[in-house]
Each structure stands twice: as C-alpha cells, then as structure tokens.
Amino acid sequence: MLTYIIRRFIGAIAMLIVISMVTFGIFFVVPQWAGSTPESLASRYVGRAATEETVALVAERLGFNDPVIVQYGRFLKGIFLGAEYDYGAGVEHCPAPCLGYSFISGQPVWPDLIDRMPVTFSLAIGAAILWVVAGVSVGVISALRRGSFFDRLSMGTALAGVSLPIFFTGMVSLVVFSYGLGWTPPGGSWTDFTENPAQWAYNLLLPWITLAFLFAATYARLTRAGMLDTMGEDYIRTARAKGLRERDVVVKHGLRAALTPILTLFGIDFGLLIGGAILTETTYTLPGLGQFAILAIRNQDLPQVMGVVLFAASFVVVASLIVDLLYAWVDPRVRLS
Amino acid sequence: MSFLDVKDLKIHFPTDDGLVRSVDGLTFSLERGRTLGIVGESGSGKSVTSLGILGLHKGGRAQISGEIWLDDEELVAMSAEQVRRLRGKKMAMIFQDPLSSMHPYYSVGHQIIEAYRIHHDVSKQVARKHAIDLLGRVGIPEPARRVDSYPHEFSGGMRQRAMIAMALSCDPELLIADEPTTALDVTVQAQILDLMRDLQREFNSALIIITHDLGVVAELSDDILVMYAGKCVEYGKADDIFYQPEHPYTWGLLGSMPRLDREPTERLLPIKGSPPSLINVPPGCAFHPRCPYAERTEGRASTEVPDLAPTERGHLVRCHMPRTERRALWENEIKPVLETQ
Questions:
Q1: B89 to chain A: which residues are within 8 Å by CB?
Q2: CB–CB of B100 and A233 under 8 A?
Q3: Is residue A234 part of a domain?
Q4: Is ipTM > 0.85 here?
Q5: Predicted structure pTM score
Q6: How many structural domains does chain A have?
Q7: Is position B130 within any domain?
Q8: CA–CA separation, B107 vs B128, rounded Å?
Q9: Are B103 and A243 a contacting pair at CB < 8 A?
Q10: Which of B95, B105, B107 is closest, CB to CB, to A257?
Q11: Given this model, what pLDDT does residue B296 score?
Q12: Residue B7 is inside which H or E element, if any?
C-alpha cells in the first residue's frame, strides 16, 4: 500500500514537471520559432512608446537572450523561490510562487489567481454535490426499474442534459427564473461565503443547478449502466442468499461496486472544473478562474494565460492523485497490483 | 411429512421468445442428516430448482407454482419478506464459483460477519469471533489473521472453504450446494467434499448437492434425482441409480463419466446431441430425439409424456419402455459395456 502511494506521488510530480515544460514551451519557445524575437517579447513589457535601445536592454535584463534551458530554470525558480525582475528603473521582487506579471495591469499573476479561486471553487463544490447526489440516485432507481416510465423519462432527460450546452440552458434559465419570474438573482451576482453564507448560496443556486444538470445527466447514465452490470453479478445473488434486505443488497453490494468508475470520472471532472468553469462563469458573469482565463486570452496577456493554464492543470493532476488513492481504499484489489 | 417436501414445483419464465419451462413439475423430499444429489446437464433446470427453494428465482417475472414445505412451513405462498428471514438462517446456499460469488471489495471476515449479523442481534466483536471460529472449523489455517483477507488473496480451495463458512454461519438446517467443486482443482475437490460430509454430520443438516458430475454425488448422496429438461427422469436411492439405473439418459450419464479404473485408450460413451431448449421442449418424452431406444416405444415417445413410475426396486423412472425390456437392456447391453470399459 505504501509503495502504491509513493509511486502515485512520484507519478503526479513527474506529470506536473511535464506540464510545466509543455506550458513553458508553448508560451516561450514556440513563439520564437514562429518569428518572435527576444525584443518582441520584451516590447510587451515596456510598452509601445519605448525606444529600441530600451527594449533591447529589457530583453537582456529579463533574460530573453539566454538559452531556453536557462530560461526554463529561471521560470521554475520563480515558482518555487520567487524572482527578481530588473526593469532598469529598479529591481522588483516577485515572491514565490511567482508566475510573472500581467502585461496589462502590471500586477503579479499569482495573487489574482488566488483571488478568483473561491468563486470557481464555490461553483464547483455546490454543483458537484448536486450532480453526484441527483445523478447517482436517478441512475440507481432507473437501473432497478429498468423499462419503467421513470427509467424512460429520466434517461430521456439525461440525453437532453448531455446534449444541451451550458450557454443554452444557462441563458434560458436566466431569462426564465431571474429576469422572468424573479426567483433567482441576475447574472453577475456574487457574495463571498464568509460575508453572508445564505446570500452566497442564493446567488449561486442557478449556476449550480445548470452546471449540475449537465454533469448529472452523464452520471445518471453511467450509474444506471454500472448498476445493471453489478446487480447481475454472482456476489449479489450471494448477498440475497444470506438473507440481506434488498435495500442493503442494492446499496452495500451493488452500488458499492458500481461507484468505482464514477469515482474516477468525478476526480477528473471536479479537477477540471476547479481549474475554471469557463462556460458557466461566462454565462453567469461570475468572477472566477474561467472568466479570468477568457479575459487573459482576449488580452493576449501571456503570463496570465500561462499562470491559469498551469494552475488548472495542477488541479487535474492533484484530483487524479486523490482519486487514485481513494481507488485503492475502495477496491482492495488495486492495493496489490 | 419430511423435513423438506417439494411437490409438483414449476418455475416458468415468460420471455419474448416464449415460455421457458425451467422446472416443470418436480417432486422430491429430504430428511435432516440426509443428502440428495440432483444431477443433469447444463440447462436441465437443476440450478433454477435450488434458487426457487431459496426464493431467489429472478424477480417478479418468474411464474412459480407447486408447494415447497420446509419444516412444516410452505415457502411458495409465503411473502418475500418472510422467505428472506429464513434465507441464510434456516436454509443456505454454497455457490459454484467462490471468486465471483464473494464481493471483491469486502474482506472474507466482513462477509461472514454480515451474514451472521443479519439474523443475530450481536455486536461486531462477537460476530467476528464467530467468523474466526467458523473459518477455523472449515480448515483455514491462521483464521484470526485470514479473517481480514480479501477473497482475491485466497486460493480457490480456501475461497470455497470460506464460502462454506459463510453458508454455515447461522447453522442452516437445509444446505444447498450448487456445483460446489466445479470451479476447483481436482486435488482440492476431494478435500471440499470431505469437508462438506463432515460438516453435514456435525450439523445434522439436510444437504442438496447440485452437479453434473456423478462422481461428486457418488461420494456424498443418499438419494439421487436425475433431471432432464426441467423434469425428473429418474429418482431413487444412490445405489439403485448407480447399479440398477433404468432410464437411457442415466445410462448415458454413467457412460460419459470418466473413471480412473478405465483403460486410457477406450473412449467414453457420450450422449449424442445436446440438451433441448426449454422453450421448445420436444413433445412426448423430452429425451426421445437423443434416445437410442426411442423406436421401441411404438411411437409413444414423441406423442405422450411418460409417467414417473416405480420400478421393481421402488425407485422412480420416467420412460415408455416396458419395465422388463429396460431391465434386459441394462443387464445385457449397457452394464457389460460400462463394466468392461
């Protein structure tokens, strides 16, 4: 078991290093192949008004003339130890973890990411609870009553849920529930949890439901398929032969086994989501990481884009690490292999 | 009335292709401390019979009729909840493949403890002690340590022992073993059969062994019931079935049984053809398309279902051939071939 944990940890760290290399490569190396010079990179830091000499000087000071490997090393060092930026006008210290400065605002990237984290996290956690509870219970009931009216209705709804994009369901729900009926607040409403938990939940209610609907559909279908499989297994017959109540047979024996693939999917989905629910945040104008990413891309704000990509990727890696560890806890057969 | 009395049991499954007559009018009885072997090919209805007794035949789709009397209680008319309370306690089952029959995510001990605590209101510690005790009794070494092992960490034989421990956890009076040794190594089969015989004596339970392997029933059974296409074709004392069988299907089963005392160059006597579909059971005697003696019945084989009638020795046979002719065939044609083989 311990070696399994250690192996997964090493794997996760290796994955993060690869991701950092790829991100660095995409944002710093590929543009140079495409014709960017150290000067054109540097000019983004100093603005259009600067003279060629200034640009060249800044390019030198920011190290854009150094070999790629040195630049990558400096990039990593910034993340772990912080970095010193010398713009010529003075040395600025960027504390670790340093992902550089925004081209537009001149602010360091990291604190901005942290600021937006609670929004995305709130959105993801609420939606996740809703979709797991709804998706799994609908899936179980559908499987147990296969072919019934409930099964057909819920699977039809699930098909719609999988097919309808969030910018459609989100817009429709805003129009109907917020602007039409006035039950929910308009888009862009956000209150911090620490400020007013009730208002926090009320503001997020519609985004939660919309986002959960999309995922619940997938989970319901997956749970249904998994339950149909496991309820036909020999060990279910054994559980019944022991005289176990049908409810316990379903939950403790059937669902327990059917949940394993759902756990895997959940880890990846949740990891992706806390890296930024771009469509949901854009539809409801929520100031989270997804919206941050969209703005950064629109502004071609390289350090911000790179920061958010790296940030989001680490969530996926961490989430799948947690899932791997949970997997070993859930399925004892994994511990041996 | 016997401890277990099954009367005219029918279990039919309606499907899109037609009615599947898995069990079609089965009658037998069994006393405590006795063993009944139910023998037949795959699809003869023997497993459905056992599941039917436990009330585990699939869901609400199955049509079940007849009577099952267990210790003066009738199970067919009983509510599902009442049958559930008896299941695992009064009657228990051992399944064929212990790996797929045990939950892969729970330790062996957990599964035995669960079985015990369904029917006994005791603490986990007490149930755990009981589980360790049971594992020791079925011959698992170091039971206090193995109780926390998972099924995949056991060998096939050990798993079947654990399965038996689970079935015995509530001292069942009726134990049904469905192909208990089929998934095991030959060397382990004998150990498991010995274990079952010893435990049956110790618990004085009624035991039903369901198998296609006559060697297994020869080891254990007092009585043998031969099933074909959902019906009993021959039923009687084990000695009668082995030494004085009168049904051509039983002869076929005996002839296709591998034996160590045979010359390795000689071939087995297989039954030609394959078992019928239980949707389209052949009219008349279900065995007649495969029966080498079908033409000796003056055409009745394909038109009339033969009755289950007693032989001179008192066991029951379902065959159109006259008694004397069957005896003569066995003595003059079948027995010599089986013996010289």
A1: 243
A2: yes
A3: yes
A4: yes
A5: 0.81
A6: 2
A7: yes
A8: 12
A9: no
A10: B105
A11: 83
A12: strand B4-15
